[in-house]
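Re: the multi-chain job from yesterday

Posting the exact lines I submitted so nobody has to dig through the queue logs.
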Amino acid sequence: MVNKIGQMKIQQMAFMLIAITLFFVLVGLFVISIFFSGLKKEVAISQEKDALNLVSKIANSPEFSCGAAYGGQKVNCIDLDKIMGLIKNNETYGNFWKVKSLEIRKIYPVEEEIICNSQNYPECNYFKIYSKGGISEDQSSFATLCRKEFEINGIYNKCEIGKILIGS
Amino acid sequence: MKNKKAFLDISFSWIFALIVGAIILGGAIYGVSKFTHSAESISAVKGAQEITILFDSLESSFELIEFKSFTMPVESRIYTSCDLNGNFGTQGIKLSEKIKSSWSQDTQEITSQNRYLFSDKISEGKTFNIISKPFEFPFKVASLIYVIPSNKGYCFVDAPSNIKKELNTLNNSKVPLDQRSIRVGEENCGVGDKKVCFDSSSCDISVNYNQNYLTKSGDTYYFEGDALMFAAIFSDKGIYDCQVKRLMKRTYSLVNIYLEKDVLLSQKGCSTSFALELSQVQNFADNFDSTEKFLNLGYILRELENKNRYSECALW
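And the result, structure tokens for all chains:
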């Protein structure tokens, strides 16, 4: 009889201890989930900030930017003549900007999409610079697309409106 | 005998409770310490990420020189690393925060192939000044970023007028006076400031501006252009040499783009050819192994710069 009461007590205690352990584990999980949900938000905000900066950073990087070639420094001005050189050397750049895809589109006038290559440039409107596993257009920014144009009367700067798109 | 038996007479339930209790407590302590450790690491990585976003905003700027400052929530260390592997090499940045008199460890490094940070290997402080300046060779290669803790001051004595003018623009920034690391003129030098002299060799850093080199802590740093001069002043020798080599790697790739553009413009009817000088710069960048080699290149860079400036079909 005494043994049976003792066994009961042990069972009660074991159940109690399991209940306490489960309680603390659940409380711990709750705290961690609150902590990480806040963190997820912060990561999303940080990634958004990063991506926005990245578009501007890429458009104004030496590989893309007009520099002073079209008269004075311009923000978000992309030199298309340089882009053709970049497309030829895109393997070297690989993961340089840590993006999945990188492309530039002329947005005006709206025409059928023609991918640019050395044969059809400048009679084209879509510059596919880099693409790793499909195209995703996560972030974009308007940019001025400039190139040197030649006529019988001489050389002039031709600038059009376009968009730089990155998939990150 | 009876006493001995009484001494050992602890009920099984007590022993059971003690053992399981100890396991629960041990587990809880282990969990809390792990959680605290990961929270510290997360905080450090968040800080490093914020800093890199700040760097990106500076790099997009067209200013000749730009100055910003940021304050960390606690005393922090910024670890800078540089690696030459790959087409462009890699820049690493890691943040460690001081928590209860010890530095957080095992924080994740944020790497980038397109960033060039010049600083000591470890920069320690709560407020940091960051200065950005484009490096041109003679076309823009990258924006260099100098990181200086606000508790570390540099005093520029007898600087040439163009340097003085540039540094004085920093004084117009919104950064509070006591947090600025740069001072111009001997009369403004603070106690503990590192003196940067341009006409004397008896300072912490002696710059021979005309000969393109400076001496610091017994080491000689060769530079080309003001951006690299500042980089040499503010950074550790190992970081400086590695980052300059990375810049030369990028120069090499940029020349490929400019050579393609040159061909394209020539085909269209623009007769100015940059190919010879560009190839010389590319050859220099390809064989670059020591900053001392800068001494032989100045003439070609000036020639290329002038050709581009007065060309109808400028490349950059």
